[in-house]
Design brief:
13 helices
Length: 309
């Protein structure tokens, strides 16, 4: 067997240190962690491209518990992939790095890495991977409250998905775009995209995304004073979230229903004898999601994607 290259030995040292820190079970134990299994594969004589893939997967497994170590792995793996001219490995390293930065709240940095990965995946002809990156960038801009930028990137992703005829991901983007239009106050467009989403996804069965979509529709009806429609949408969303066991979302909907009743009472007061009060809308109590997994009200039916080709 040929001797490992110096850069491979460096990866081995770093990986061994990570294994020591996280207390992986010794070889031969009854249960091996994912990292231990990846280490066993990496320890074998494998082609450079497979080593890059394994190192990217190791970095991914470290992302939640050890982001600094994961960041170091991804930087080194990207350089390794570039050295061996492995475009897929380069693109995955950059995308994973973007997801990592988004998880630790460094959103501008996340956008930077997602954008760096786009020309690499374009060079590969990986249109699905490019669409995933645009969706990730849209999610990131959403977290920054830059809704115009988010919407622009969701539409870019949608155009690619439509060309690829990837129906499930097209439907997911209908949700993202409808949710974004609702936040921007463009209620006709928001309702159109959310109804497209429900038309295609509701027949597939109960899901968080379908339940959330009805809540967002309730918000839209509420904003334009269609209160009975709002009530029906909120009740339908609440019933779904109760069935799914989502207590947090049920609490949010109860709050929304409270706002709904308060507004009805105010309107009755304004429309009493001698009252000339104009009807005014009110925002729902649900805040903008604070994380990719936050499903409060208009939460995403999914967050940042790995998008591995």
């Amino acid at each position: 067997m040929s001797r490992p290259s110096p850069i491979y030995r460096l990866f081995a040292v770093l990986l061994f240190a990570g294994c020591y820190i996280y207390g992986l079970p010794e070889a031969g134990g009854q249960e091996r962690t994912v990292l231990d299994s990846l280490w066993q594969e990496l320890d074998a004589a494998v082609p450079d491209t497979l080593r890059v893939d394994l190192l990217n997967e190791i970095a991914w497994e470290l992302t939640d518990g050890a982001p600094d170590e994961a960041r170091g792995f991804l930087d080194s793996t990207f350089r390794y992939a570039r050295r061996v001219k492995y475009l897929k490995g380069q693109g995955n390293s950059l995308n994973y790095r973007g997801v990592l930065e988004s998880k630790v709240g460094r959103i501008d940095s996340a956008i930077h890495y997602f954008q760096l990965a786009i020309p690499i995946r374009e060079a590969m002809g990986d249109l699905g991977g490019v669409a995933n990156l645009y969706n990730n960038i849209g999610n990131a801009y959403d977290h920054l409250g830059r809704y115009e930028n988010a919407l622009e990137n969701y539409h870019r992703s949608l155009r690619i998905r439509e060309e690829e005829k990837d129906s499930f991901l097209i439907f997911r983007l209908y949700y993202n775009i409808g949710d974004m239009y609702e936040r921007m106050g463009n209620y006709p467009e928001a309702q159109d995209f959310l109804l497209r989403y429900l038309e295609n996804m509701e027949p597939r069965g109960l899901s968080d995304g379908v339940a959330n979509a009805y809540n967002v529709l309730g918000n839209i009806h509420f904003e334009v004073n269609r209160f009975e429609d709002a009530r029906n949408a909120y009740l339908k969303s609440m019933a779904m979230h109760e069935e799914l066991g989502n207590s947090r979302e049920v609490s949010t909907l109860l709050n929304n229903m409270g706002n709904f009743k308060d507004m009805q009472a105010q309107l009755l007061h304004n429309e009493g004898p001698g009252a000339g009060g104009a009807r005014t809308g009110a925002k729902s109590a649900c805040p903008i999601p604070e994380s990719a997994e936050d499903h409060c009200g208009a939460g995403r039916p999914g967050g940042y994607g790995r998008g591995v080709p």
